Write a sequence for this structure.
């Protein structure tokens, strides 16, 4: 699976949009971009995933660049409960496992 | 719909002992994957069970073993516990081998 690069930490003001970047410059055509988050000492929570097109669900939006070498997870109106470590994972369609990196610690400030 | 559940939530063992952790998959999910998360690190893949058979393993020794039952629930067994086995053990279920994985709350194991 392709390697991902994320900033180690970010802050965001409550009520504002949180934009979390992820670089995956070696991604191949059959690899999906997945986002999970992990609130302290809990199990990771699935957020969203996509292949080529932008995706949106009730939690977030995923914007993938046209060359697929980077993506951005957008939490439209961040709340204090969104404070967590966010993991960007690239996974082939035939990969059984998720390979987690270090993630981004997002802190939402009041 | 019930999500993924794990038991126990916390466990303390001593070095050399054996431990069994349990996972109930989400309704309709036939695949269970296990991960180990050491303090301050991301989860590491241990293995996956699909239709009661081990279906892929990460870089973990044979003393880590598992089972999956006909109802798709699963157990993770660790023999000859070492201090470095202290970690959060996570179970994730999915509709199939390559589908989106949904995680349980984890079992925190402390080996003394």
């Amino acid at each position: 699976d392709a390697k991902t690069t994320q900033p180690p930490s970010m802050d965001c003001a409550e009520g504002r949009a949180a934009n979390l970047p992820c670089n995956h410059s070696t991604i191949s055509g059959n690899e999906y971009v997945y986002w999970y988050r992990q609130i302290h000492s809990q199990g990771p929570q699935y957020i969203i995933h996509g292949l080529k097109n932008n995706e949106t669900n009730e939690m977030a939006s995923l914007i993938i660049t046209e060359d697929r070498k980077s993506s951005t997870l957008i939490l439209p109106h961040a709340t204090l409960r969104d404070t967590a470590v966010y993991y960007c994972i690239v996974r082939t369609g035939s990969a059984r496992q998720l390979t987690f990196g270090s993630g981004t610690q997002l802190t939402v400030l009041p | 719909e019930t999500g993924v559940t794990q038991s126990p939530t916390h466990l303390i063992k001593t070095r050399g002992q054996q431990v069994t952790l349990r996972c109930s998959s989400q309704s309709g999910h036939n695949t269970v994957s296990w991960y180990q998360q050491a303090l301050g690190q991301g989860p590491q893949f241990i293995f996956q069970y699909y239709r009661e058979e081990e279906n892929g393993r990460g870089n973990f020794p044979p003393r880590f073993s598992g089972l999956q039952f006909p109802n798709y629930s699963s157990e993770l067994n660790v023999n000859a516990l070492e201090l470095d086995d202290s970690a959060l053990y996570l179970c994730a279920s999915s509709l199939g081998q390559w589908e989106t994985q949904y995680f349980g709350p984890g079992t925190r194991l402390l080996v003394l």
Observations:
- Chain B has no helices and eleven strands.
